[in-house]
Amino acid sequence: MNEGHRVILRETRESHSSKGINAMTTAHDIDLPTVLAERLTNTHPDVLRELLATFIHTLMGAEADALCGAGYGERSTERTNQRNGYRHRQFDTRAGTLDLAIPKLRQGSYFPDWLLERRKRAERALTTVVATCYLLGVSTRRMDKLVETLGITSLSKSQVSVMAKELDVAVEAFRTRPLDAGPYTFVAADALVLKVREGGRVVNVHALIAVGVNAEGYREILGIDVSTAEDGAGWLAFWRSLTARGLSGVRLVTSDAHAGLVAAIGATLPGGGLAALPHALHDQSDGDHSEGVVAVGAHPAAFGVRSTRRGIGCCSI
């Protein structure tokens, strides 16, 4: 998605019929970046810490460069000061404590008061932006908003633009990281329909999400992607990207039985025969009990899966 998109924080669930996809708005609003931040905290605290540290150090470095009148190590006639090492401070986040390296200046001093004097506010703002950038990518507009929220006034538009490009590389590296902690025996996939504002109009896009259980038994966010496709092409591209990154060993997939998702799994996973059982993927109270894709390459009975009236009773491999 480009930076012209703006997410409207209302979740809609997909209700699938033989004629296509119909969006049904749930009775509650969600803040998807907050939900994603919680998922990252629970499943990837080390990754969230690393991304937070990258964002914070990039912001501090850009601010120190602005005070020096030139970039770090850059030869410039406009330079008025120089870096002089670092001093370390600890910063607590929901994902753990960060060891921050704060730039020191040869003349005068630099102190990131926007971070260390308003810690809780800064932590919330940074975590939300990190999660949003993970989902939608880093853009100059999002970084502008973060800088404004944190109260940083010393950065120019060009500095924010350069910073956004640097951070986008770091975020993309995690989004496309090798999935080398498999086999991922269990995988759950879902799609949230988000309303976004694009070019002055509101359109629906799909946030495709896959979470797997790795070889050590821990949940891991395998991938998140935003697609405008409603014909299954988005799901196919999503699953192809997961397998290209190393997704393997999948024996059980839980999701709703959207035809495009079923076809994508069958086309990309080894032994892609699928079996389905009724289950309530979404809130039991909303009455939406879609079919659930539960087994890859075998009948559910082979995995000890039992169907119940309300959904999947139990499964074991």
UniProtKB/TrEMBL annotation:
InterPro entries registered for this protein in UniProt: Transposase_mutator (IPR001207)
A GO BP annotation: DNA transposition
One GO MF term: DNA binding
Keywords: DNA recombination, DNA-binding, Transposable element, Transposition
Record-stated family: Belongs to the transposase mutator family.
Function: Required for the transposition of the insertion element.
Protein name: Mutator family transposase
